[in-house]
Amino acid sequence: MRSADTVAELVGRQWGDHRIGLRDEHHALTHHQVAAGAAARAALLVDLMPPLPGSEPHLGVLLDNTPEYPLWLSAAALAGAAVAGINPTRRGPELARDIQHTACRVLVTQRAHLPLLDDLPLPGLRILVTDTEAYRELLAPYGNARPGDASLGPVRPDDLLLLSFTSGSTGAPKAALCSQGRLAAAGSSLVSHFGIGPNDVHYVCMPMFHGNAVIADWAPALAAGAGVALRARFSASRFLPDVRRFGATYFTYVGRAVQYLLATPPGPDDRAHPLRLGFGTEAGAVDAARFEERFGVPLVEGYGSSEGGAAVQRTPDTPTGAIGRAAPGDDLAVVDPDTGEECAPARFSPAGRLLNTAEAVGELVNRGRSSFEGYWRNPEAEAARLRRGPARAEGPGRDWYWTGDLFYRDADGFLYFAGRTDDRLRVDSENLAAAVIENLLARWDRVAGAAVYAVPDPVAGDQVMAALALHGDGPFDPGAFADFLAAQADLGTKMPPRFIRVVRELPLTATNKIHRVALRRASFLCPDPVWWRPAPTAPYELLTPEATETLLAQYARHARSPSQEQRG
């Protein structure tokens, strides 16, 4: 079967397929029922959003991962409309801003989220509440609709389908654009890469308002005619029971979710399930190896974004710790963001330590054609993503796509993720990458999760701080931790954390990524226990109020602040 040009075409292909296609704890729909349900909602949508001057055919979806979510994605594709995934962890003016910024005329939600909308200024917005009798009555007249019966106009590959808010750490989130053609192509690419077939079942446990679940999980299932199983919200304790119940063979993840799964009590039947692979980002080599050893499931690390500006694909010969090579058609390079010149290839010690961090780590750019389609009504953000390299850089005549992510590249062209550009640390004039240090700390058997970030040095540059979530209920043992660090042959002299914040759980964003902004903002002035080294080679000791006052006085003398948000 040829690849589809649009998501609408993929939805229509489900018509007449009476295998189970969509399930959760309470529902089981065939592929045919999914197509019929999508057609009914598309017909309703066309009636609710007639073309009007100055208006957009946009609907917001403020739902957990219920069957209504993929049904409305499919309906929007059939109708030629676009879905803005609304984050249910946003509140008040921020939530109203997301809905208004994306020009939503209809909002689909559920009763549990209605209190979030109380007293918000949302004039003219039509709200549909899916778990009500009124909603069922509204849909009933459209029950005989078929795919293709109702649309706002001819559906084309370049029609906008998704407005996906990025999980940026600063400022208002940006709504990345994704067309029907790009989403259909992304799904087909993953089908080919992973050999996904109609008998697979994709477990969608990451939130569907984010690109991870839609682009990397739902879209390939749709392209392959595979089944989809939903978990309303991620649950580590329900993961294996769900996988067994639904017969799931594929799932997507982010690194913190993997850590939660590894923190569940081991059982004798941990490998008794049909899963064959997980696909995601930022699990780290140590956790990925632990996951495969325990559950028998390889985690395939990929690199991509909701924006679609650059992609890295893993190949069978990818070394441990690397993400892979550039995807076909991409001209990826690791460059110095100040000069635009390519960074030196990474050099490693026999123990695997990166020897030339300062020369090798840079920003990943795509100098070739990218599938980046822009941000909704945000030309400043688009200009920051698409810009030519500095004058001294050589490259094609088109703009480069700047990912905002740090990488290094070995002599064979394999790319290694080193963190976000905001995660770069500069200690004693040496550049360090947070992800490299995190991977080292993850080797300590007491660590359930680690986040490394910069706090300003009292005089100049940065100091390394780490937040550690530990296995079990035992206290942090500073001597054992120092012994562990001393035993790491690939730990550079500037890498050991000056400050250690011991937390019960790492703070997370709504997309299960570590909330580094909150950590940097708190610095060592936080309610959790903080251990520190008064001197680089001193033993770790508890940071007392007296020591804190002494440190703050040092910052004051140099007109600096311990919070990275205010460093000078």
Description:
The chain has 568 residues and is an alpha/beta fold. Helix content is 28%, strand content 22%. It has 16 helices and 27 strands. Helix 2 packs across helix 3, helix 6 crosses helix 7 and helix 9 crosses helix 10. The chain starts with 6 loop residues before the first helix and ends in an 11-residue tail after the last helix. The mean pLDDT is 91.
> How many β-strand runs?
27
- Computed over alpha carbons, the radius of gyration is 24 Å
N-to-C span: 59 Å
Question: Which word captures the global form?
Answer: globular
Our count of helices gives: 16
Report the uncertain regions: none
| Helix content class | 25-40%
Record the SSE blueprint.
Blueprint lengths: L6 H6 L7 E4 L4 E3 H18 L9 E5 L5 H12 L2 E4 L6 H10 L2 E6 L16 E4 L3 H7 L20 E6 L9 E5 H15 L6 E4 L6 H14 L2 E4 L5 H11 L3 E5 H8 L14 E5 L3 H11 L3 E3 L10 E2 L11 E2 L5 E4 L21 H4 L1 E5 L12 H7 E2 L12 E10 L5 E6 L3 E4 L2 E4 H8 L5 E10 L5 E9 L7 H9 L12 E5 L12 H7 L7 E3 L8 E2 L2 H13 L11
Parallel strand pairs: 1-10, 3-4, 3-5, 4-7, 5-6, 9-10, 9-11, 11-12, 12-13, 24-25
Antiparallel strand pairs: 1-2, 7-8, 14-15, 16-17, 17-19, 18-19, 19-20, 21-22, 23-24, 25-26, 26-27
Provide a quick synopsis of the model.
With 568 residues, this protein is an alpha/beta fold. The chain has 16 helices and 27 strands. A hairpin with a 5-residue loop joins strand 23 and strand 24 (462-470).
